[in-house]
Design goal:
single chain; about 450 residues; alpha/beta; GMP Synthetase, Chain A, domain 3; twelve-stranded mixed sheet; four-stranded mixed sheet; 11 helices; 20 strands
Length: about 450
């Protein structure tokens, strides 16, 4: 039924599509804005230093989970008087979530559809992850986003533009519009799938017509627009800031976006399962929100010292009806607890460096990580993507620009072979890179 409605929506005239989009916005607002909650303890930005580990908040949260959530009954044996004690709780992994979905929400939930948000992540290795999230968590997250937009110099009452994986047009559509205007949000919702050298000016014309004052969405979409604009010497002015989400963004591409749109770019970090848990300040650091507890741990689940890389682990204290406690995100990061120099006085991630799953699996069972280094010799490439077809074969897809040097790709292949060993490595020019079902763009995709 859902796919039938989606097909009707995609193939409808623009005015009908706009009606559909606004009805969906109303439905989503029932989850995002209807909760009557005390938000004062979870405001995103406080200029006064506060204790990161709130003992009473944590203990009440853990006690409620132990008493009401079947999976977490084992927590009755744990005490959480300190951070050290809290970090003794076993990690919650994606595999555990998949195997215990019906045991991970509270027995006090009477109506799942009314009290919980049912979500699904696209799955970095091709296996989607279904989960439940407390409606309160979704509501607070929306308020925190609004706070962050204000921090970035944006007026949430103004019009905005968003680029994301939301399907607003069929993939084979060759003419605009590649967007739909959502009146309820005063937002121009744009497709990330249709941006190219041939279409980017259509997007710019739509921006000029709507006149948004700020922007949000996938950094890969904004980077694709920026690269096409820079190539033609075009600068768009009118946005106070661009706030990105859902994907990582390299410093190089961030600078390109800022150059093309003449405004600062800020990033957020989070996951659908636990919501937004950190926001980027003017110094480029990702500060932890007071509604979340974030750790960086080693492969044994133990905390690492500040400045060392490890897996990011998150607890969302807003989601008591569907708690994710010490959730292993699969993302890698580096944390600091020293002052950053900005006004957000919470610990921060200085860098989010990719996913644990971002590795090439070689014929001799080695895991080659930090795979971006394979493309270092390349000259004149806008975007690239590594596809590991099998244990024997890797294909590197590239989208070139006017400075593309084919000879440099020979060095890329040679460089790659030094890392992966006896594997077939080839490259090819493509018009578009493969995206996940959510519309997100991954640098490395394994097909097995």
């Amino acid at each position: 039924m859902k796919s039938i409605i989606s097909n009707i929506y995609i193939n409808s005239p623009y005015i009908v599509k706009r009606l559909f989009a606004n009805l969906e916005a109303i439905r989503r607002d029932k989850y995002r804005k209807s909760e009557d909650i005390d938000y004062s303890n979870f405001r995103t930005f406080k200029t006064v230093s506060q204790s990161y580990y709130n003992v009473s908040l944590v203990e009440n949260f853990i006690q409620e989970a132990a008493n009401n959530v079947p999976y977490y009954e084992f927590l009755k044996e744990y005490t959480t008087h300190s951070e050290k004690e809290f970090e003794n709780i076993p990690l919650l992994t994606k595999e555990i979530v998949r195997g215990n979905l019906e045991n991970l929400f509270s027995k006090n939930v009477v109506n799942i559809n009314q009290q919980l948000w049912k979500g699904s992540s696209s799955g970095s290795t091709g296996m989607p992850l279904k989960y439940y999230r407390d409606k309160q968590s979704v509501t607070i997250e929306r308020k925190q986003y609004n706070d962050f937009y204000t921090y970035c110099g944006c007026d949430i009452n103004d019009k905005s533009v968003r680029i994301s994986g939301v399907k607003v047009a069929s993939f084979n559509k060759k003419r605009p519009p590649y967007w739909v205007y959502i009146d309820r949000y005063k937002q121009l919702q744009c497709s990330a799938y249709h941006i190219s050298k041939e279409t980017y000016k259509d997007y710019i014309r739509a921006f000029k017509k709507v006149k948004p004052t700020y922007a949000t969405g996938f950094p890969s979409g904004w980077a694709a627009l920026a690269e096409a604009m820079i190539e033609d010497g075009i600068v768009y002015k009118g946005l106070n800031a661009i706030i990105t989400d859902s994907e990582g963004l390299s410093l190089e591409k961030k600078e390109k976006i800022q150059k093309a749109f003449a405004c600062p770019v800020y990033q957020t970090y989070g996951l659908g399962e636990v919501g937004m848990c950190s926001v980027q300040c003017e110094n480029g650091n990702y500060h932890i929100l007071p509604s979340h507890y974030v750790e960086v741990v080693n492969e044994n689940g133990n905390g690492v010292e500040d400045g060392n890389i490890g897996e990011i682990v998150v607890t969302d204290f807003n989601s008591s009806k569907a708690p994710f406690i010490r959730y292993a995100t699969g993302d890698m990061g580096i944390m600091y607890r020293t002052p950053c120099g900005c006004k957000i006085e919470t610990p921060y991630l200085s860098n989010i460096v990719g996913r644990i799953e971002d590795y090439i699996l070689t014929k001799d069972n080695r895991k080659v990580t930090r795979v971006t280094q394979l493309l270092k010799p390349a000259i004149g490439i806008n975007e690239s993507q590594i596809i590991q077809v099998s244990r024997e074969e890797i294909v590197i897809n590239v989208i070139p620009n006017e400075n593309f040097d084919k000879e440099s790709m020979k060095l890329v292949v040679k460089n790659a072979k030094e890392f992966v060993g006896d594997m077939n490595v080839s490259w090819r020019v493509v018009d578009n890179l493969e995206r996940m079902p959510s519309g997100k763009l991954k640098f490395l995709i394994r097909k097995f």
